[in-house]
């Protein structure tokens, strides 16, 4: 598990350096929450949460996902 986390960090860091994003069209899951804090600004995270609240105010679609 530690090797997987280390590899994931390398991929995320390199992707970030190249202007990439750790998110995809399927959204951000539970395991990406900590990573989002590392790579996204507080404003970006709040925009994501606001979109989520607007589209799914009761949190019924993919519970636990950020967006």
Task: Give the gist of this structure.
With 67 residues, this protein is mainly alpha-helical. It has helices at residues 2-17, 33-39, 42-55. The chain is built from three helices and no strands.
Description of the molecule:
- The structure is a single chain.
- The chain is mainly α and 67 residues long.
- The chain has one domain (2-55).
- Helix content is 55%, strand content 0%.
- The protein contains 3 helices and no strands.
- The longest helix has 16 residues, at 2-17.
Residue-averaged pLDDT, rounded?
A: 80
Overall SS class: mainly alpha
What are the segments in which pLDDT stays under 50 over at least 5 consecutive residues? none
The dominant shape is globular
Supply Rg: 13 Å
Helix residue percentage:
55-70%
Largest sheet: none
Order of helices and strands: HHH
End-to-end Cα distance? 26 Å
Strand content: under 5%
Count of helical regions: 3
- The tally of beta strands, per DSSP, is 0
Number of domains: 1
Supply the key terms.
single chain; 67 residues; mainly alpha; 3 helices; 55% helix; FAD-binding oxidoreductase/transferase type 4 C-terminal domain-containing protein; FAD-bd_oxidored_4_C; FAD-oxidored/transferase_4
Detail the topology: elements first, then pairings.
Blueprint: H1 2-17, H2 33-39, H3 42-55
């Amino acid at each position: 598990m530690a090797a997987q986390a280390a590899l994931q960090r390398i991929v995320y860091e390199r992707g970030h350096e190249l202007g990439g994003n750790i998110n995809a069209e399927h959204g951000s899951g539970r395991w990406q929450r900590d990573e989002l804090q590392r790579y996204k600004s507080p404003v970006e995270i709040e925009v994501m949460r606001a979109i989520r609240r607007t589209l799914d105010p009761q949190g019924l679609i993919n519970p636990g996902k950020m967006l």
